[in-house]
Task: structure prediction
Amino acid sequence: MTINEKYALADLVIEHALKSGAQQVSVSIDESRSNDIEIRDKKIDKLTESTRNGLSIDLYVDKKYSSASTNRLKKEELFKFVDEAIAATRFLAEDEFRKLPEPELYYKGGGKDPGIIDNSIDSVDARTKIDMANLVQDEAYGKDERIISVSSYYSDNISNRVLVTSNGFRGDNSDSSVSLTAAVSMKSETGRPSDYWYENSIFMNKLLKTGIGTKALERAIRKLDPKKIKSGKYPMVLENRTAMNLFGPLYGALQGYSLYQKESFLAGKLDKPIASKLLTITDDPSLPLSPGTRLFDYEGLAAVKRPVIEGGVLRNFYIDTYYGRKLGMKATSGSSSNVLFALGTRDMAAMVSSMKKGILITGFNGGNCNGSTGDFSYGIEGFLVEGGKIIHPVNEMNITGNMTEVFFNLAEMGNDFREGSSFRIPSMLFENIDFSGI
Amino acid sequence: MNFKRREFVKLGGIGLAGAILIPPFLKSCTGGVNLSKGSEGYLNHFEVTPQLLQKVISAAMEKGADYADLFFEHTISNNSTLEDGKVNQAYSNIGFGVGIRVLKGDQTGYAFSESITPEDMLKAARTAANIANSSGKALSADITEFVSPNYYPVGTSWENTSIKDKIPFLQKVNDSIFAADKRVTKVNATIGDSTSYIMFYSSEGKLAYDFRPMVYMYVTSIMEQNGRIENFGVSRSARLGSEFLTEQLVDSLSKEVVAKNALLFEAGKPKAGEMEVVMSPGESGILLHEAIGHAFEADFNRKKTSIFSDKMNKKVAENFITIVDDGTLHSDRGSLNVDDEGNATERTVLVDKGILTSYLHDRISANYYKVKPTGNGRRQNFRYVPIPRMRCTRMENGPHKNEEIIASVKNGIYVDSFSNGQVNIGAGDFTFFVKSGYLIENGKLTKPIKDINIIGNGPRALADISMAGDDTKLSDSTWTCGKDGQSVPVTMGLPTVKIRKLTVGGTNA
Result:
């Protein structure tokens, strides 16, 4: 389906739903195409090609609300689908807060196209993509006798979405991504550690295509024969790649849904300090050519740059239309765009080099956080650091604490965020973390 | 494509008018099949003929593949949710399509189509065919129908259950939780149901089909006491129709959630470090799932990336330990009548009296190891390739008593509720997150604990199970297992067991 065909189908479905008894309707039509190639030990292991389509509809019927989605997009079937959904919606309880967003909050046009799609990905033939994955493979395969297995992956995706609402929003957006990954497994007497490395980009010609296999191999080798150390309070450096594990719960607690459900340890903390002064986070939808760049969000709300945390003080939650109304708060957006962290001056290696005794965390293993209280406990792997040097890999340890305290222990922000992600998180140093080991 | 109305009517044996007056949420855009008529019903449901199946398979094999299969799926799912004391939101989804897999040795080509017109299916088949590149061979197998036992008979299917019939159960669970404890300030509850029609056809001529019901009910309560907030969630799940929804279900969910939520106000964190861990019967089966289950999945062993790769027929646990992965339990969330590669499911013995006896196989790994498939080839849906996955992974009874096991611990913890776990296959490190438990001091359960992660090493933890109770129990919570980006429903079970040493998250003085 072309974009125009999607708009036409969305219009038809909205018209039908309004005629059949809905007072308000929102329809989105999504399409996503992807290619995945896996090479294992110099042989193609898996080739997958996929195209998915889906329509989802939000129905507001006599103050009642439901949502439904389907990948059956024939007009007649859709009409029947909508009729059944409307009939079922009438059995639900009324909810005065369920309405489409106020039209004045919608994006009204005139913005600069985010330009975060590379259509040339479609014209690259399968052979070229396989060769890219082969190159990644060759960097690691056979390069160390302890290697058990090397897998390399090529993956691309092109998606687009059309959103139309019955109270005046019309918009579409498109994006793409392409990535190369290597995973290397090693064998030693104590286990078969593995590690990976990846590069990704919106654009095929900006994708870094070399060094991936090499890095994955280096990372796997240095994980051989880990040991756990004594339980205690240690400083930790969190590698940029894994830092999201700690910020996931923070982002969960910033959601309107969590606030309303009393599952947010940040409830009541607006304009209060929640972290070290070093923590400043900005949500910036206008950043050029970044995966989170957008003109409007999934509800059609115009994208606005907002401070989230300024010098450790909480400035904004992520509030969608529905929970905004229930909480009596102004809707911002229920989802993040590009999340920018105020940077420090040094990278991870420099932070490690000035650590007396502590742990560099390079991976997480399970664990969870209680959203209501902020209590967390995670399995970790990484390295023991002494006198600024990496001594040996560690594993089978946990870190445990509370989210309302741990961000005050942030002692240094790195300057080394990774390109290619909408969360631009650098490596960070935290003091006084509870580790459990021997 | 349009499904035939008459088939829909036949399915539930109710009148068309009735179905429209009280629609389920949603019924589907389509119809059903006559379950008793076997494969003919499924062919009709997907509007394909045996000839068309063979034509698509031929296209999939035209570049010289060894094998190809087609996986048709039509799934209708519904969620009805209570928030603020009323059922005011519902979500439904329909997923429909066919996945086409082509194998050349252990190499896989995969494509799927969300439309099952002959043209679209042939196009997807030719895409998947690209994994092979030699001259094509014609293939015409006779069709053999695989008739499986039915491990999950359905009373009233979800397609014939209106949202109107679900609402009272959500309302009741809400009311009884609020009535049970004055500290309750919020209750959320959801009933999620789904119905899947599955049809499978392979280049070997095997035609298999399955009707898969699934339901879960999930409730969370939030309590406040002196400015502190604690939450807890509990759930039940089964492969059943609407007969799943009963007064007893509501009663058991509300009692459990209230008791466990209230206990959290007394709970703290243990001291950090290594200690003896006693796992309660039931959902502590998460230990088996994470510590060894994934590492037994044969794809990891075939690739030699599992820490158990060289342990077959070796002693891995004490003699009193027998562990199985079972797809045949009545109405169990992890059960399958037939796996997603058309193979019979079974009760697979993984560890027999302490000896590792079998991995969990899909077609590719069974061929590699030259063993019979174990019926563990599963996929999230038609958009994914099948891979070895667990079903219900559980330990059989051991020789010890629960009280005896607890009494044997001087300083340790007892754990009984979990939210999630993970494993690092090669290193063998696994974790599970404890939502509730107790300290054990001098052989007695004392202070409640909560929200801590436990980490261990799979082979060591298995060898370190020093006691196992005679009280094995299945967990009927809503467990969903993720691997390679695919989620599938599973269950687990365990008697009381004691592990000599695991690393427990906690505080340091």
Q: What stands out?
A: The first strand of chain A starts at residue 24 and ends at 40.
